[in-house]
Design goal:
Layout (H helix, E strand, L loop, with lengths): L1 H11 L2 H17 L5 H7 L5 H32 L2 H94 L1
Helix pairs in contact: 2-5
GO cellular component, one term: nucleus
Subcellular location: Chromosome, Centromere, Kinetochore; Nucleus
Keywords: Cell cycle, Cell division, Centromere, Chromosome, Coiled coil, Kinetochore, Mitosis, Nucleus
């Protein structure tokens, strides 16, 4: 996989420079295009037709020479400043940076998954603790209810005993009295 990337980089080496050269030439063409005979006639109406044709031919030669000279100077400056290797290095750095971002994004996804898993485990633990607390609370309530039931039973036994005692006392009163 890495060898394919290196091969692609080697094939792409110099392509940035050739794109710059093509762009420069495309930009230069409209600036250095030859003038038509009509444009020469409009620009120099007082000249004879022969002079206008000679002027157009001279203009074309000057433009052609200027065009070649500008291209030569541009190429010379690019070579002197090592534009090609610099552009290739920049392209390589941009490619590496974009690959680093993809790797970083994958790492971020893994970090997010890990953090989410930890968060869910913590939430489950919290819910277990809440459930245990609720169960303890329910046991306490049941214990209290049992005490209340026992208290009622004792109170009804006591009440029955009291009523029996009162009944005996009244019977004893009526018998003695």
């Amino acid at each position: 996989m890495a060898e394919k990337g290196k091969a692609a980089s080697l094939l792409a080496a110099g392509s940035a420079r050739s794109r710059v050269d093509r762009s420069f030439k495309r930009a230069l063409l409209p600036l250095l295009s030859a003038a038509s005979i009509e444009e020469i006639r409009k620009a120099f109406p007082s000249f004879s037709s022969d002079d206008q044709r000679l002027l157009q031919q001279l203009f074309i030669k000057v433009i052609t020479s200027l065009h070649g000279h500008v291209e030569d100077v541009f190429e010379s400056l690019c070579d002197e400043m090592k534009v090609g290797p610099v552009l290739d290095t920049v392209e390589q750095l941009v490619e590496e940076q974009s690959l680093d971002l993809v790797k970083s994004d994958n790492t971020n996804v893994l970090d997010i998954a890990r953090d989410l898993s930890i968060s869910k485990k913590n939430e489950i633990q919290h819910l277990k603790e809440v459930l245990e607390k609720a169960e303890r609370h329910n046991l306490q309530i049941r214990a209290r209810l049992e005490l209340i039931k026992k208290g009622r039973q004792q109170s009804s036994v006591t009440e029955d005993a009291l009523q029996k005692l009162m009944g005996e006392m009244q019977t004893h009163k009526t018998c003695s009295g």
